[in-house]
Every structure is written in structure tokens, then in C-alpha cells.
């Protein structure tokens, strides 16, 4: 298993962003769904070793990220696209991707070829030498994806990766996710239910810091059948039905 | 006769498809070409830094530090040049008074949480974000100290005064870095560093009746070092706790 999470919590002051999450994931594309403030980004940041959990245990790629050596090893094999990706406006696309390839400690001799492959893979070949400040939002997002995949990560964490991408680019990106999912663990946090339905083999739905559903997209769809849950597509209705059920349980307990 | 016949001399056996260009993976060839054309060749400074630090990633982080770029260095030289002229003209060691504030501003712009636009991403990298910050801060401090020493030598200031401002400079730089890290803003760091130094200089004027007391009074060395250490701890603590969006 590339990800083993046991009863993990994360607090920010008084706010409990993640409230006892347990999950395991091997190879494949995993969707992380949920409303705003559900705890998806916090969970992803813990998996990216950006923040430590407040309590619980986390093992990534068979290692404990709490130790300096194992954490460094995890980070070498990790690809991460944050929700709010900052850019160096004066860098070109290639310089940006190359910079992070070097910070991931890729062997320097391998970096130029890996950067070229990543830039081509996200369709930014024609903009390779363009400064980041001249690119559109969708292109910047693709530059962010390129830095995430440049080291052929074993664990790829993507927070809202399709935000700003046009429909054609989203289709291409789903293919890329499926391709990576054949040999790596890909975790995608998204609001877009159709991305999950098209690309993910497993899906976890989070609400109020907890995972309230874990299964396949088909199983999530089945939860919405025969209900009056809101949604235009079957998967959306499943999403709404699970959320409504989880919230009614919480309200009853309260 | 066609062009193809001309190439093969009309011999059909030579025109047979074989392991020639048809089997070439053009996308692989293009990637090889693109890698060569697009790659950023490190300059001598970056190669030297990579060799010294034994990390190409740290070396790249170092040469892309805003306050180590040529424009900033030129600005620093101009400010210290003005200090030299003022010192020579008035007899007051203005270089010793200006150098700490210039260095503090450079340290605040050395990148850190809130200053580096890609800080979140940097926190997930194998090369530690704190190592990047430390390397950049040390490089900026070292460069500014060297420029300040050269400026002091140009004014003919006594060695004790020349070295007198290095300790306060350490304290002011530590204050700027701590403020920038806590406030997650380089501009706040710059403001704190310059304001802190101005208060120190003016306090020296009030207490000892000399503007230069802040850099000439040896009794201040220990308090400066203690203050720098406290600021270092604050910087370490502020960069340890990562504030996030729930």
C-alpha cells in the first residue's frame, strides 16, 4: 500500500479540519470529493508532508514521514499540485519545472529530458520558453501539473487540478491521470464530480473532516438511485444522497 | 524517373523498407532535441555553488534569490557609495550606520514563508525549505558584509568601527528575517529591520550624545548577539508551525 492512514486528525487552532480519517490506497486513481471546508485540502497537505497530523499515524510509500530521512525519501518520489500554486512570474515554464525537479533531488543529468517530457505531456511545448507572467490561468495550472509529474512520482497528489482547464484539456488530463494510475497512486481532490466518474477507480467523500463514503464511482451512483437527491447526473445524485444521509446522522446525534 | 528512383538508382532491393527512418520514434527524437534546446545551462556561479553545497537544487535556489540578483546588488553598491561620500564629506561614519539597514532589507527579501510565492510547494520538496532559507540568508548576509567592509575600507574608517557594525548588522538582519517570517511579508521584514535600526541609532544619540554610539559602544555587543539569537529562535519557530486553510 502506498498510503496507509490510521485515525488521523489535524487541528488549526480550535478548528478540527480532519477528524479521524483512516484509509488505504495502492495503485490507481482515487478521487477525494466533498464540499468546501470538508477537510480535503488539509488531508492532501498531510499526505504531501507539508503539515504533520495532530494525531494518528500516516505511512506514505511504506515510510513514516515523521522522520527526516524517510520524509526526504518520500518527497523524492512525490508529486504535489497545491490548490493555490504560487508562481515565480519571471521564470519561464521550463525554468519553473526544472527548478522543482532539482529541489526534488532528481539526478542533474536526467533533469533536461524529464523536464522536456513533462512540458510536452501537459501540452505546453509551444510555451516552453514563455515567462509564467504571460500565461493564462489554464496554462499556469498545466505548468503546475508538469512540475508535479516531472519526477515520474509514485505518489501523485493533485488539489483541484482541472480548475481553469477547458473541456478538451480536461479530457487530456484525465487520460494522463489514468496513465499514472496504472503504476502510481494518484489522489485527486476535486469539486467536479464528472472528473471522478471519468478517471477514478475509487472515491472517498469527505464532510466535516470525516470520510462518509468510500467505494467505487458506481457504488456512489447507486446510493442516489431511487432518492430525491439533488443533481443533474447520477453520480451527482449519489454524492448529494450520501452527504444528506451523513448530515442527518450528525444532526440526530447532536 | 521519380525522385525516389533517383535516390536508389532504380534498384528495387534498395527501396525495400528496412530499419530506417520509418522506425524512428519521432516524439522521442523531439524530446531529446527539446531537452537540449530548452535546458538552462548553469553559469559559473551556480556551478560553483552546486559544487560547494553538493546540491544542484540549493544552488539553483541560491542564484534565483531576489536580493542576490544583479539589480539588487547594484542598488546596494549605490547606497553604500552614497554612504562613502557622506562619510568622507562629514567625518561621521555613515557607512557603519547605513550598512546594517541595507543588509536587513536584503535578508528580508531572501525568500521565506509568505515571501516565496511557491512556498507551499517548496515545503513538499526533498531539499528542505529551511535549508533553502538558511542558505539564502547566509549568502545575502555574507555578500552584504563583504560590500560593507569594502565601503568602510574606502572611507578609511578605523578597523574597530569597521567590525563594530558587523555585530549590530547580525542583530538587525535577524530581526528583519524574524519579522518577515512571522508576518509572512518581506515588506514587513524590511520595515521592522529599518525601524529597529533607526530606533537603536537614535537611542544611542539620546543616551550617549553620539549618533555612532550604536556601532562604537562595545557594551552593546552582548545585547546585540542575545537579540539576534532570540530572533533566530522566533524564525525557527514561525517556520516550524505551518498555518493552513482548514
Describe the structure.
The complex is a heterodimer of chains A (254) and B (246). By secondary structure, chain A is α/β, with parallel strands linked by helices. Helices cover 40% and strands 23% of the residues of chain A. Chain A has two domains: 174 residues, P-loop containing nucleotide triphosphate hydrolases (Rossmann fold, 3-Layer(aba) Sandwich), CATH 3.40.50.300; 69 residues, no CATH class. Chain A has nine helices and nine strands. The two termini of chain A are 36 Å apart. In chain B, 73% of the residues lie in helices and 0% in strands. In chain B, helix 6 runs antiparallel to helix 7 and helix 6 packs parallel to helix 9. The longest helix of chain B is centred in the middle third of the chain and has 27 residues. Chains A and B meet through helix 1, helix 2, helix 3 and helix 4 of A and helix 3, helix 5 and helix 8 of B.
Strand order of the largest sheet of chain A: 5-6-7-3-8-9
Into how many domains do the coordinates of chain B divide? 1
**Which oligomeric state applies?**
heterodimer
Report the portion of residues of chain A in β strands: 15-25%
Kindly estimate the percentage of residues of chain B that lie in beta strands according to DSSP. Answer: under 5%
Total domain modules of chain A:
2
Structural class of chain B: mainly alpha
Principal-axes shape call of chain B: elongated
Counted by DSSP, the helix tally of chain A is 9
Number of extended strands of chain B: 0
**Mean pLDDT level of chain B:** 80
Largest interface, and how many residues on either side? A-B, 47 and 36 residues
Estimate the global geometry of chain A from the Cα principal axes.
Answer: globular
Order of helices and strands of chain A: EEEHEHEHHHEHEHEEHH
How do you describe this structure in short?
Chain A is of the alpha/beta class.
Overview features:
heterodimer; A: 254 residues; alpha/beta; Rossmann fold; six-stranded mixed sheet; 9 helices; 9 strands; 40% helix; B: 246 residues; mainly alpha; disordered N terminus
